[in-house]
Automatic annotation (TrEMBL):
It is an enzyme of class 2 (transferase). GO terms for molecular function: acyltransferase activity. It holds the Pfam family Acyl_transf_3. Residues 391-637 form the SGNH domain. This is Acyltransferase family protein. Its EC number is 2.3.1.-. It comes from Paraglaciecola mesophila. Residues 8-320 form the Acyltransferase domain. The keyword ATP-binding does not apply. Keywords: Acyltransferase, Membrane, Transferase, Transmembrane, Transmembrane helix.
Length: 642
């Protein structure tokens, strides 16, 4: 296959990829599958990298260090400028919590590990992603990780027996990666979206096209049209509701492969001035469009003409970046690396290290908090989750046996805490309060898992875990007291966020009866086995995350108020009246059972607060911060010792 002349068809694919991604981010409902543009980029990259490496290996002039250096100079300059300018902008206009995150994410982006960082934070399509200024750099991290290992895989194939063995090695790797992606899709594992092992097949699929001879010109147009049809169908038919990449990604990636295979650069679709320019600018447009999308959201300008201005601005900044950065640095003739030292010690690498270090410092220093007043510092410092949030919590995708959960200062007498993700911060806070009492704590937490005690087949992982956890607590003679906390409002009526400030109801009365029956049987069983029980009622849910509250305070008022309303007391009462009435029943008002109402401490007669006395009670829109959990933990100890 010819790869020496300029491939206008590949440049047109770049244009199509970046246009689909950009339009998806600016108009997600109008182009629901536009995110497949990233998959198109992966196939293109795999094809080009295979051509570069294999041709040079054939000619016995391939240098691993030169390859890494050329890739570094292609990706890094524009990315470095983006990270630097966004950070400077954030330093002037952005609140400290967001700047702290910007610092962390700029560091991870420049270190090409952002895909792993984001995989541990939130999904690509989640609401929180709209607050991540560098979310789009996950794909650059995947590409760089691929660049690091792919030449080694090619060299291994040649070492095993020439190009035929190489094709077998690539085919097996492709099939293994695709199988992993499909398996994760079938299992509902959304973390496959960000990680190389589930994406490698897309890049290798592009690479495999290099080994095929292009079709005759009469067939080339048909392959090209077939490829465009596959991509077009993906863009307009797919949506973020699908498990991705899984087998769905075969449609746009095969479509891209068909177009590359056709090698038809003569058609007007592939070779016109508009498409050509967009293709040339595609990398820089991709880099700049997402911070603009996030910025519009951040400042409340994500509507009307502002979106059009943002869209045009993405293209203009992309063009400027191309001519001022890419053309002058990335694509300029670079001298050979002349060894590992020259690869690692040069102006680009040193500049990257400085910017990354500043980002890391911003993260470590809470968004350079010294710039702000005492109230702001107090509020921001209190927006903290448990340091053990991820380590101690079971979930459907990260199952932990109940007996293997976290423990704190175990002694001859211990307490246990049982519940969903709302138990995590309370566990840490309660353990802190118990330190001086010679009482330990066992944590039993399962994220998004409601009371499913006593449920038999078909049994969910949640029900299996709950039954095992309750048995584990009941049979542990050192446990004298059990604290039970669930987000019962959500388990009984569903998430509040789609309906707020209205009261939504996503479940049936039959479902609610089942939840309450399980809850009662669980508490009865614990009491029957000699355990004292403290029931913690639901925490007030907010209309938006505390981070958005802080952000809006900066945007609108330029400051954070020491007292900030989170929601109305009437909303909390209406949302929770069903369960609060259940708690008034005689079965929950026995000598062995205590009750704690967080609303007594987070609310007054009219309002429930998100910030109270210069401290945040939350770290998001419904989970207590460590400060908020500390308030409840103190009340639990008082109740037990009373």
């Amino acid at each position: 296959m010819k790869t020496t002349s300029f491939r206008y068809d590949i440049n047109a694919l770049r244009a199509l990829a970046v246009v689909s991604v950009v339009l998806f981010h600016f108009f997600p409902h109008d182009l629901p599958g536009g995110f497949v543009g990233v998959d198109i980029f992966f196939v293109i990259s795999g094809f080009l990298m295979t051509g570069i490496v294999v041709k040079r290996v054939r000619e016995q002039r391939f240098s691993l260090l030169d390859f890494y250096r050329s890739r570094l100079y292609r990706i890094m300059p524009a990315l470095l400028v983006l990270c630097l300018l966004v950070f400077i902008f954030g330093l002037v206009f952005i609140d400290p919590i967001t700047l702290k995150t910007i610092g962390k994410h700029s560091f991870s982006s420049l270190g090409f590990i952002s895909n792993y960082i984001y995989n541990g934070e939130s999904g690509y399509f989640s609401d929180n992603s709209r607050l991540n200024w560098f979310l789009h750099t996950w794909s650059l991290s995947v590409e760089w990780q691929f660049y690091c290992v792919y030449p080694l895989l090619i060299l291994l194939g040649y070492r095993l027996g020439g190009e035929q063995k190489l094709k077998i090695v690539l085919a097996l790797t492709l099939l293994l990666s695709l199988a992993l992606a499909v398996y994760q899709g079938l299992m509902g594992g959304r973390h496959a979206f960000f990680l190389l092992e589930y994406r490698a097949w897309e890049l290798i699929l592009g690479g495999s096209i290099f080994f095929f001879k292009s079709p005759e010109s009469s067939a080339a147009s048909r392959f090209q049209l077939l490829g465009l049809a596959c991509i077009g169908l993906s863009i307009f038919w797919f949506s973020e509701q699908l498990m991705w990449p899984s087998y769905y990604a075969l449609l746009p990636t095969l479509g891209t492969a068909f177009i590359i295979y056709a090698a038809n650069s003569q058609s007007w679709l592939m070779n016109n001035s508009v498409v050509h320019k967009l293709g040339l600018w595609s990398y820089s447009i991709y880099l700049w469009h997402w911070p603009i999308v996030v910025g519009l959201d951040y400042f409340g300008l994500n509507h009307g003409m502002y979106i059009i201005v943002g869209l045009v601005g993405s293209v203009l900044l992309g063009a400027l970046s191309y001519y001022m950065v890419e053309s002058k640095i990335s694509m300029s003739k670079q001298p050979k690396s002349n060894g590992l030292k020259r690869l690692l010690i040069n102006k680009l690498v040193l500049s990257t290290g400085v910017v990354a270090a500043v980002g890391l410092a911003a993260f470590k220093m809470n968004g350079f908090m010294f710039r702000f007043d005492d109230t702001t510092e107090s509020v921001v410092n209190s927006v903290k989750a448990s340091p053990n949030r991820n380590r101690c919590t079971s979930s459907d995708t990260s199952y932990i046996e109940p007996q293997e959960g976290c423990t704190f200062n175990l002694s001859s007498e211990n307490y246990a805490i049982l519940g969903d993700s709302h138990s995590i911060e309370l566990s840490q806070a309660l353990a802190n309060e118990l330190k001086g009492n010679e009482v330990g704590l066992r944590q039993y937490s399962y994220s998004a898992c409601g009371p499913e005690y006593g449920k038999s087949a078909p049994q969910t992982l949640c029900a299996k875990w709950t039954n095992a956890a309750v048995e584990n607590i009941a049979n542990d003679e050192t446990i004298s007291h059990v604290v039970v906390i669930y987000r019962m409002s959500s388990h009984l009526f569903g998430s509040h966020s789609p309906y707020y400030p209205d009261l939504g109801d996503q479940f049936s009365e039959e479902h609610r009866d089942s939840v309450i029956t399980s809850f009662k049987e669980m508490v009865d069983y614990l009491v029957a086995n000699g355990k004292a029980v403290t029931l913690v009622a639901p925490v007030p849910e907010l209309g938006e995350s505390v981070k958005l509250v802080i952000k809006r305070g900066f945007v609108e008022d330029g400051q954070i108020n020491p007292m900030k309303i989170g929601t109305s007391r009437s909303y909390y009462d209406g949302r929770n009246i069903y369960f609060l009435n259940i708690l008034k029943q005689s079965t929950f008002n026995r000598r062995e059972i205590n009750q704690i109402l967080p609303s007594d401490y987070f609310c007054d007669a009219n309002y429930c607060y998100v910030i109270k006395n210069k401290k945040s009670l939350y770290f998001d829109d419904d989970h207590m911060s460590m400060h908020g959990a500390g308030i409840i933990a103190k009340q639990i100890i008082k109740k037990i010792q009373h």
